[in-house]
Amino acid sequence: MKRFAALALIVGLMSSPAFATGEFAKEWKGLYQTGDASPEFTKAAKSAGCNVCHVKGGKKTERNEYGKAVHEFLDKEDYTKDKLKADPELVKGIIEGLKKAGEKKSSDGKAFAEKIKANALPATDSGL
C-alpha cells in the first residue's frame, strides 16, 4: 500500500496542468494555414511545429521573437483546457491575441502577419 501511495504521489507531482497550447496551435493553423497559404508554407509550418513560437533546441519556456509577441497577448494559464471547455467563447480571445501579435514587427522590420501572408515563417530567431 505504501508503494502505491508513493507511486501515486510521484505521478501526481510529475503531471502538469492541462494548458491550451494545443488550442493556440489549432487556432494559429486555422488563421494562417488556410487555402491562401502555399503548400510550401504549410509544409514549413508543419515541420516547424512548436518552433513557430519557440526556439529550436531551447527549453519550452524559451520563445522566439514571434512567440514573445504572442505571449504579450496570450497567457496559456488564461486558456486551460478546463476553462475552454467551460467557456468555448474563450477561443475568440485566442484568435484576437494571434491577430494582435501578427501586427507586431519582426527584427527584420516586417509585421509578423505580413511575413506569414507572404508564406514565410514569422520569426527570424527560431533556430530553424
In a nutshell, what does this entry contain?
The protein has 128 residues and is mainly α.
Notes on the structure:
The protein is an all-alpha fold. The protein has one domain (23-117). 54% of the residues lie in helices and 0% in strands. The chain is built from 7 helices and no strands. The longest helix has 13 residues, at 2-14. The radius of gyration is 17 Å and the shape is globular. It starts with a helix and ends in an 11-residue tail after the last helix. Residues 4-20 have low confidence and may be disordered.
Order of helices and strands: HHHHHHH
| Total tally of structural domains | 1
Distance between the termini: 49 Å
Radius of gyration: 17 Å
Please give the number of β-strands.
0
List segments where confidence is low: pLDDT < 50 over at least 5 consecutive residues.
4-20
Largest sheet: none
Task: Count helical runs.
Answer: 7
Tell me the helix content.
40-55%
- Class by helix and strand content? mainly alpha
* SS strand fraction: under 5%
Spatial shape: globular
What's the rounded overall pLDDT mean?
Answer: 83
